[in-house]
UniProtKB/TrEMBL annotation:
It comes from Goodea atripinnis. Residues 41-132 form the Cyclin N-terminal domain. InterPro entries: CABLES1/2 (IPR012388), Cyclin-like_sf (IPR036915), Cyclin_N (IPR006671). This is CDK5 and ABL1 enzyme substrate 2. It comes from the Eukaryota.
Length: 152
């Protein structure tokens, strides 16, 4: 038999964040904060009835921006909300009322202003170099994970 030593969750989280920081020194957020933002994105997406593929696209946009080092503590919520909004607009044929509902949910969940979100949407679009249509290979891993989480 093997004995696995017990590690406090807080210590595990700290080690994970330190390892992430060593691997990606240019990223200004911790791994746990990035995961937390993605969890919030998923919750809003599911609340608004977005398909898992749409949420997966938002995750890809978000991760691209994270890897570019464009996120910091001050704008992290705006960026994640704008990613969901862009993904919803590009992959779904949302009616005007559905877009309004999504913006209301994003505003409520991320505690951001509608005006900032709308203006930030274009900034994110430019940062992503207008490349909103993604290859299947980039979206599929996120999609699979989301579908598995829904089944549990």
């Amino acid at each position: 038999t093997t004995v696995i030593e017990y590690v406090k969750p807080s210590d595990l989280k700290k080690d994970m964040n330190e390892t992430f920081k060593e691997k990606f020194p240019h990223i200004k957020l911790t791994l746990s904060k990035i995961r937390s933002l993605k969890r919030e994105m998923r919750i809003v997406g599911e609340d608004c009835g977005l398909q898992p593929v749409t949420i997966a696209m938002a995750f890809v946009y978000f991760e691209k921006l994270v890897l570019q080092g464009r996120l910091n503590k001050q704008i992290r919520k705006l960026v994640s909300a704008a990613c969901i909004l862009l993904a919803a607009k590009i992959s779904s044929d949302l009616k005007k009322q559905e877009v309004k509902h999504l913006i209301d949910k994003l505003e409520e969940r991320f505690r951001i202003s509608r005006r900032e979100l709308i203006s930030f949407e274009f900034i994110i679009l430019v940062a992503l170099e207008m490349a909103l249509y993604l290859p299947e290979s980039k979206v599929l891993p996120h999609y699979r994970r989301l579908v598995q989480q829904q089944q549990v």
